[in-house]
Amino acid sequence: QSYCHRLQHDMYFLTNTSRLNEQVVDKIILQLNRVYPQILTNEEAEKFRNPKASLHTRLSDLLKHLQKKGDRHCQEFYRALQINAEQLFNDLPSRKILKTPDPTEIDTDKEQYMLNDRGPVFFLACFSVAAGLALVWYCCNSDTKVVGRARRILGFSPIIIGRHVRNICMLYLEDISRD
Fold first, then answer.
1. For the residues 116-142, what does the mean pLDDT come to?
2. Do 89 and 6 contact (CB within 8 A), yes or no?
3. Strand (E) or helix (H) holding 107
4. Is-contact 37 117, C-beta < 8 A?
5. Among residues 47, 52, 50, 56, which one has the least CA distance to residue 13?
6. Where would a tag sit more exposed on the chain, N or C end, judged by fewer CB atoms within 10 A?
7. What whole-number percentage of the chain has pLDDT above 70?
8. Torsion of CA 122, 123, 124, 128, to 10 degrees
9. Dist. CA 20–CA 10, nearest whole Å
10. Residue 170 in contact with residue 151, Cβ under 8 Å?
11. In the chain, what are the domain boundaries?
12. pLDDT higher for 159 or 80?
């Protein structure tokens, strides 16, 4: 959201029931006039600091003037407001909107948890199935040399896989070698 839109959204809040007092508004105007980059010229600053006009009118005119000037000017106003009235700056409606999470936005922490909620046992089970299928496919090759190599590998398998699984694989290999 651009700073001009945010300022338009916050205008009623800022001008309503003297949330900003005369001294704070003067400090903001002076900062916009004196600090680089100069946002307000000397004539504009004098116009907005005119004590004859009401504070509400001067502040409304200042905010409208900044909106006409562009996004950079509105951004500098927010910076001056943060420096001179930090509590008010934190209470702005546009700040509250920025702080609340978007309901359509994906929460990456929650998404990460949702993808990994099965745990390490599920991973090991999937890996074991994949390794078993790869081993069976490797052993089903018609080449007899492969069966001999697989038999050597399965000879050491009690360390890697369970005894029952090893016996099933050995029986399967013997059946293949007979054919």
1. 75
2. no
3. none
4. no
5. 56
6. C
7. 73
8. 100
9. 13
10. yes
11. 3-97
12. 80
pLDDT (average), residues 17-45 = 87
pLDDT at residue 37 above 50?
A: yes
pTM of the model: 0.55
User: 19 Cβ partners below 8 Å, 6+ apart?
Assistant: 13, 88
CATH code of the region 3-97? 1.10.533.10
12-16-22-26 Cα dihedral, nearest 10 degrees: -10
pLDDT: is 101 or 10 the higher one? Answer: 10
Whole-number pLDDT of residue 141: 62
Q: Which residue has the tokens 């029952």?
A: 164
Cα–Cα distance for residue pair 45/55, rounded to 1 Å = 14
Could you identify the residue written with the tokens 């205008």? Answer: 11
Cα–Cα dist 141/149, whole Å: 12
Look at the alpha carbons of 87, 88, 89, 94 in this order and tell me if their dihedral is positive or negative: positive
DSSP summary character for residue 85: -
Cα(3)–Cα(73) distance, integer angstroms: 9
In the numeric block, the tokens 């052993």 are attached to 139
14: exposed, middle or buried (Cβ count in 10 Å: 0-12, 13-18, 19+): buried
Which is more confidently placed, 103 or 36?
Answer: 36
